[in-house]
Amino acid sequence: MMKSRNKKNRDDAVSMDVSETKKVSESAPQAMDTSETGDGTLASARTRSLTSAKKGKQMKRMKNARKKKAMAKAIALDEKYEEKASKDVTKKQRTLSAKKLYE
After folding, report:
1. How far apart are alpha carbons 54 and 51 in whole angstroms?
2. Residue 97 belongs to some domain of the structure
3. Where is this region: Disordered (predicted)?
């Protein structure tokens, strides 16, 4: 038979808090506040200033950096394709020479 080490006394009366409290879901529905606070023109001017902050030299530097990166990538791809083509040519030459040996 099992020992009941952690057995709780179920005979004890446990007091529960049963006070009436209103929950969020039980409260009366309220109208949604759709009024805008502040001036809309200030907000649009602020976002415009944030987006136009990176103009001039900084944008030109970023554009040049992207161009250089794209050119380097294109050169690397070109070299890769040239290497692949040269490997194909050498492979064809090896197979042709091997065929000539056995003819």
Report:
1. 7
2. yes
3. 1-103
DSSP-derived secondary structure for the chain: ----TT---TTSPPP--------TTTSPP-----PPPS-HHHHHHHHHHHHTSS-THHHHHHHHHHHHHHHHHHHHHHHHHHHHHHHHHHHHHHHHHHHHHH-
**65-96, pLDDT tens digit by residue?**
999 999 999 999 999 999 999 999 999 999 99
Q: Look at the alpha carbons of 86, 88, 94, 97 in this order and tell me if their dihedral is positive or negative.
A: negative
In a 13 Å sphere around the CA of 9, the CA atoms on its Cβ side amount to 4
* Residue 56 domain flag: yes
The model carries a pTM of 0.38
| Full residue range of the structural domain in which residue 65 is found | 47-102
Structure tokens at 34: 């759709």
Token readout for 59 is 């944008």
